[in-house]
Amino acid sequence: MGPKLADGRQSIVLVSDNNFGATQYTQILTLGADLVPTPIPVEATLTKSADNDVFTLKGGSGKPKLQVSLTGRNSNLVNELGVFAVDDATGKIDGIAPGATGYAEKALARGRVILSAISNVPNGFNPNEIGRSLEFADGNNVRFYLVKDSTTDSVISGKTPSSNVIFSSPTTQKVTDLTNSNFTLAFEDGSGAADFQDLVVKIEPSNQALPLGVGLQGKQEGEVLDLRGLSGNVKANFSVNREAAFNNLVGFYKVDDETGRIGNLKPSDAGYAQQAMRQRIAEIDLRVDNQGTAVFDNKQLAGGSILAPFMIANGATIDQVLNNQTNNVYFAYLGANSDKVDHIRLLGNNTFGFEDLASGGDFDYNDVIVRANLTV
């Protein structure tokens, strides 16, 4: 190597010695070169504290992914699994320790929904095939929680009491180390035998990129397809299942931001439902017979947008909604629903379960299930 150049770059000295007897010439050529090291991918890792239920994610080129797979459920309740970041290995949040007053509110404010496990699965739908992917920052410490027979959104809105939030403890969660950074989490919701089979998932680190569309999923009222950052058309293949007496329609409409705003209209504003129908993607009308499976392939979605789902229940029509008959239309945003109840759950990556009865009805969220596979 040669000397450092004035601009800080490293020089390389090449010497050619041409000795042909009578005359000898020595040429020295100095070249400036930018030496850029080749980055070495760092595998994502997941470890559990030996002292408590705190897990730590590292690696993954600074953005480790967590892959969660539903492996079992044995409960009549439709429970929601979530995860939240904590500040240290003891599980504290803003200085508040687990179990202390105010901890649940802090945890849910940071909470990210992983999935819900429905109890009555329609024919043709296998929740164990879906999975859920989430991205974290390098070194994040996380804990898991269960919302018993309700949702994080419903607790935050005040519809469900915070006592329905179950944090991990020796009586509510069992962790099994499967080695190689893989673990099983088995939960007990208190509704039956204490066998830790009410909801069982496998968690593992991943280096795979997140599926298209999931960027907002897991956030508050985040049951949407997030196509921001994509340009051009995005191809969507939809599969639809149903376990319901009602004939329901599911579609998607464009919103302007994460809150569901359309222009100057917030979800809670009068006229929002009508404007949502005007913003809907006309080519996407998803319907299926009871206990059937319908496939809608090669639908084109516009990149750079957020698409939120809606359901029109019990044979109602889009024209009726436009004419201010909004009792049978339901959105991901609780404020837009006439009953202010959560009617859409996240079941996995780009997979949504809908409840078609007013005020939540039987709260089974299997009346329509829509799964989207997105590619560019």
TrEMBL record:
Superkingdom classification of source: Bacteria
InterPro entries the record matches: DUF4114
DUF4114 domain mapped to chain residues: 136-204, 302-373
Family matches, as Pfam families: DUF4114 (PF13448)
Protein name per the record: DUF4114 domain-containing protein
